[in-house]
Amino acid sequence: MSTEDIKTNVTVTFSPLQALLAAKAGATYISPFAGRLDAIGHIGMDVVRQIRTIYDNYDFETQLLTAAVRTPLHVLEAALCGSDVCTMSFEVLNQLYDHPLTDAGIETFLNDWKKVPQ
Description:
Elements lengths: L8 E5 L2 H9 L4 E4 L1 H6 L4 H15 L4 E7 L2 H10 L3 E4 L1 H8 L2 H16 L3
Parallel strand pairs: 1-2, 2-3, 3-4
Helix pairs in contact: 1-3, 3-4
């Protein structure tokens, strides 16, 4: 497909060998489903890391799209291993910036500001 300039996403991927075949065929994106692998007792991010290693070893241009992200930890691990994209729910997206220490810090700053003479 890449010879015809048609962008393709090989989705519902669960193994690094599927990703290898997709890259060899010229896929634009590969979408390993990390969260679904976790749900059946595998470590989904291990597959993502293996795919990244394979793609780096052979300089494949296929972009790594980590799919079925279920937790902020998946996002962190995907970023650390070089995933190009993550798909996630709005709930997980909100959890990326929500942190109890940030909330406490803002509350402290606001309370301190109230003490400053106006």
